Every structure is written in C-alpha cells, then in structure tokens.
Amino acid sequence: MKKIFALALALMMVLAAFAGCTNGTTEPTEAPTGTEAPATTDPTPDSGASEPSAEGEKLVIGGIGPLTGDYATYGVSVKQGAEMAVKEINEAGGVNGLTFELLFEDDQADAEMAVNAYNKLMDNGMQVSLGATTSGACIAVTEEVQKDGILMITPSGSQKECVQYDTCFRICFTDPDQGNYAAQFIADNKIATKVAVIYDKSNDYSNGIKDNFVAKAAEVGLEVVSEQAFTDQSRTDFSVQLQAIASSGAELVFLPIYAQEAAYILTQAQSANISAIFFGCDGLDGVIEKIGADNVSATEGVMLLTPFAADAQDEQTVAFTAAYKAAYNATPDQFAADGYDAIYTIKAALEQSGAKPGDADFNEKMVAAMTAITVDGLTGTMTWSADGEPTKSATAVVIKDGAYVAYAAE
Amino acid sequence: MMDLIANLISGLSLGSIYALIALGYTMVYGIAKMLNFAHGDIIMVGAFAVITTVSMLGFPPALAIAASVVCCVVLGVCVERIAYKPLRKSPPLAVLITAIGVSYFLQSLALLIFGSTQHSFPKVFSVPTLALGALTIRGDMLVTLAVTTAIMVGMSLFIAKSRTGKAMRAVSEDRDAAELMGISVNRTITITFAIGSALAAVAGVFYGTTYGFIGPYTGSMPGIKAFVAAVFGGIGSMPGAMLGGILLGVIENLAKRYISTELSDAIVFAVLIIVLMVKPTGLLGKRVTEKV
C-alpha cells in the first residue's frame, strides 16, 4: 500500500517537474527575439553613424494576453503579430535611432493575472503598454496605467472601459460599435431579414454587443425573431437554444460571443441540421482552430465582422500574410493584425512626437501625438479621437473550406 | 407542438446521460454507504481516453470505447483500493472529504496532461439527423437514448437475477449479515466501483459525442447534476436514479426553453427542494426505520 503511494507521489513529482520545465522554457524564448533584433541592427554602419548617441537605446513595449487556456488563440495571435512588426521595424533600422523590444506576458485572460503581468513588465522597464488582449483583463490594466501615466494602446480590448483613461487608446472597434456595424452590414448587404441572437448573459462583452445589435436591428429593418441566452455555467449544451432558433424561422444567427462557445454551438448546429447563417464579431476569430480538424466542416459559411481578411489582395496584407505564414506556419487572424498595427501606431506616434524614452515628458508627448497621427494599417486607415477610439471601416469575412475569405457582396 | 416534442427528446437524451452517471452514484451509495464525488470526473477520464486512443493511437471507434471502459474500470478500482478502502471504518465525513480530494486530483491531473483547452471529441459514431416534417431530431440523441435504456434494463436484470447482483443487494441491506452468509464484502464493493466506472465511461462517450468538446472540468457539472438526480429519485435506489436522471434532464430542458435559460439550474434545484420537502427520501427511496 505504502509502495503504491510512494510510486504515485514520485510520479506526481516527475510530472510537476516536467510542467516546470515547459513553463521555464516559454519565457526565455521571448528574450532571444528581443536581443537578436538589436544585434542585427548594431553592425549596420549607417544607423550607428546617423545617430551615434542612440546606440543600444531601445523602447520597451510590454504586451499582455492569454498565451494558455481557453482564450489562448487571441493572446498568441496578438503576440505574434506584434513580434513581426517589431522585427520589421528593427530590421529597417528602428525609429529615431531607437530599436523596439517587445516583452509579452501570459494572463490567461484573467484580470488579476493581467495586473501582476503589468507590474512585472513595469519592473522590466516597460515604456509603452499594449494593454491586455481581452477586455476584462484590459480594464484592470487601465487602472494601473492611469497611475503610471504611460501610453497604452490595446490591440483588441474592445469593451468601452478599456480606454477609459486619457492615455489609453485602442486598435479594434468597441463592443457596442461592433453590434451597430454588424446590424448595419447585414441590412446593407441584404444577408437576412429575420435574425436570432445567442449571447452569453454572464459576459459583459457579449451583453454589450447584443444590446446594440438589437437596438440597431430595429432601426435598419431587421426582425429579431429570437433572443437566446446562456451563462458560463451552461455553455456546453445548446440543444434547447438551437431548437428554439430552428422553430423561430431565423435566417441568420448573430453570435456576439467567444470562439470556444461558438465551437460548441456550430458543432451542435451541424448535428441538428440548422441551415441558418452564423454571423459573429471579433470574438469568433480563431473559431477554426478551436473547433478542431474533425469538425471544421461545421464552420462552413460562418461570417465574421472584422476589419482584417488574410486573403485580401492589397499589397500590405499580402506581404504580411506571407511573412506571418513563413514565421509561424499559421494564417494570421484579426488579432495578429491588431497586434501588428498597434506596434506601427507606436512607431507613428514616436515619429510624430520625436520623443525619446529618457525625456521627462515622454508620456505626454506620445499621448498628444496619438490624436494627430493617421496610420494606414492592416485593419484599415485609422485616426484617433482624444477619448481613445479609432475611426475605421468594417468589412466581413466568410469561412470557406476552413479558411477566412473576404466577403464579396453578391 | 413540434418544438415541445423536440425539446422533450433532447431532454430525454440529456436525462439518460444523467441517469447513467446517477446509477454509479446510487450503486456506490447503496453498497458502500459513501458519496463518491469523484464519480463525475471518471466521465471526463473516459472521454479523454477516447480522444487519446482515437486521435493519437488511431484506434477504431469501437476499440476506443472498449479501451475507455477498461481504463475507467481500472481507475475506479484503483481509486477505491487506494483512497476509500483504508477508510472503510472511518466516519462518513472523512470518506466524503477524501472523495472530494480524489475529484480535485483527477481534474488537476487532466489539467497537467491535457492543458486547460477544450479538446474536440472524435465522432465515434455518426447517425444522420432525422427529419419528420417540421421536426428534426439529432440521430446521436436517439442512439444515446436507446443505448442508455438498454444498459438500464440490463443493469436491473443483473441486480435482480445474477449471483453478484444478489450479493450486492445483500451487502446493501446488511453488510455484517452478508459477511456472515459468506459474501465477500470487499469484493462486492470493488465490483460495484468497477460497474459504476464502466457506466461513467459510457456516459463520457455519449457526453462527448453530443456536446463535441471535453476539458479537464467537463465532468464536474454533470457529476453534480447526476448526484442531484440520484437524491431526487431516492439515493440507493436504482430505478430511482434512472427516473431522477431522466426527469432532471427533461425539467432542465423545458425550463430552459419555456421559462429562462439563466434560471434553468435554479429551477432544477428548486424542484429538488420541493420533492425532498414532500418526500424526504426522494421519489422512490425507501424509508429505513432505525431499530433499537
């Protein structure tokens, strides 16, 4: 008996040690990418010649997002997108003699962990923050940002409060805006007239989009025939909601939810032969990976409101998608594009303000520059208002054969 | 009307999964007089066993289900031997806490091995969806319903007719007297755990097929619901567990559809409270009078 216990304990310790190993190895992988970049710029003679004083000087950008857990696809995409932008900028000689260094911490989309990650990044010399990837975590981070007064640009924190303080800006749309844009888009393109909604009542993101969608739908002549809710306690079984939607005669189901729940809904809808079109917002991005290779046929025809489509034919997107595929062996999603644009926005603000990280008024100059710049990014041409909101246009993508394809109106 | 029938069928399918799990709860309670709170997590282990054998080792579905059942039986027996058997003479509270500990251990182990992401469950059987006019019924739900009904009938016959079944009833009625009659109590309890775990493995396969995804915490909510079902029907009573499970599934689905999705769990528990107020031993539970 004791022997079995000892064996079990020994086994546990070995497993724990392995877990420790993998955790240990993920962190240092970031460091080499950061140190490699300056190393490649150092030997280039002209960058050293034009700005001799700035040699080795760098701007430390801190990102936070879920790299593990249910929402990991978002954080990983943002991190990889941002990494690519940092690499490109550094290879081109940096900005004003500065090279960028990106530090990225995992928060598992949890607010408390995000604050800890933020404090760790500040200890490591962060000068500009990418906020956090998910809304709840990002709101918690804004409270800390406000105390420190640094510039924060969240790539994907879409809830209203993510930019509640003066130094906070974002790349993506706000949640309420996504609801408005979605209803407008569906009506403009005559995709459907009878719509149903499945939303997560226990999630602010979902409630925010849903309320605006329903309000806007009435304005633009869409009929909301069924509103179905679920909570984080009941996010696996959707047979009842899908049955209700099937009998309501809806032509389109709006899903202002995250990809994991959508994966449940789509696989169950496929089994139940529901023919309505499913239409989601940025939270649905990454649903193809979530649903797994076995069930990928369930995502056929799903539409997403997004400012970025990986197969768009403009030069910038083509180049980004090719480089991203080469580097990470994955198709970039909206989050990757948001992360990429966030870094270029920081670059634009640096160029506009001419600020240096050592300056006493570095933060003020950077924040002031934000409302003056125009960034022609992957997710559209963006300008910012003083309240931190971007102005840009929305498009949609459709999933065809397990890939995102730009939506073309018929 | 069609809507009501469709919801009834999905409720019956959900309820029959609850009933399978509740059977395990109620059998273990009836015979070992303990609440095995780790029972729900055996479902998760069973489902992960299918995922691992199908997607990593390339087993055909039938073999994967068999492997999952074997895996759960071995696990159930090991848990009983390592965690519960040494506590056979301990106060019930100690056993209860140990069971909760085992539950957390299994969840954490799964978290360590498979990570916190949800894994998509392979299609071990695929049945076309039935369309009868306006009524569409998922084929996998009908299979769930049919197979669980067959298992429940089989289990009832097993308990009523077989020697082992008789031994189980005897141990459940009076452990000491059974021992005096030459029944090995330990062996009977082990068999009970093995059967309960096998049922949990089957429930895991159906759960995975119906809902598509499995994570380390997948077992906990169905486990709690099945426990409620077992109490609802009268804990210790096998027909009670079946009735309780199926009623729970149907009430949950109808409450979701016609009252409120958010309140459905609250309604389920409210029904439980009302039933227990009227019939403290559950729907089919026997009142046991303490003889002095």
List keywords for this structure.
heterodimer; A: 410 residues; alpha/beta; Rossmann fold; 2 domains; seven-stranded mixed β-sheet; five-stranded parallel β-sheet; B: 292 residues; two-stranded antiparallel ribbon
Can you describe this structure?
Chain A has 410 residues and is α/β, with parallel strands linked by helices. Chain A has 13 helices and 15 strands. Chain A is 47% helix and 19% strand. In chain A, strands 7-6-8-9-10-14-15 form a seven-stranded mixed sheet, with helices on both faces. A five-stranded parallel sheet of chain A has the order 2-1-3-4-5. A three-stranded antiparallel sheet of chain A has the order 11-12-13, with helices on one face. In chain A, helix 7 (204-219) links the parallel strand 6 (194-200) and strand 7. Chain B has a single domain (2-278), classed as ABC transporter involved in vitamin B12 uptake, BtuC (Orthogonal Bundle), CATH 1.10.3470. Chain B is 73% helix and 3% strand. Chain B has eleven helices and four strands, in the order ααααβββααααβααα. Chain B starts with a helix and ends in a 14-residue tail after the last helix. At the A-B interface, helix 1, strand 7, helix 8 and helix 9 of A face helix 1, helix 4, strand 1, helix 5 and helix 10 of B.
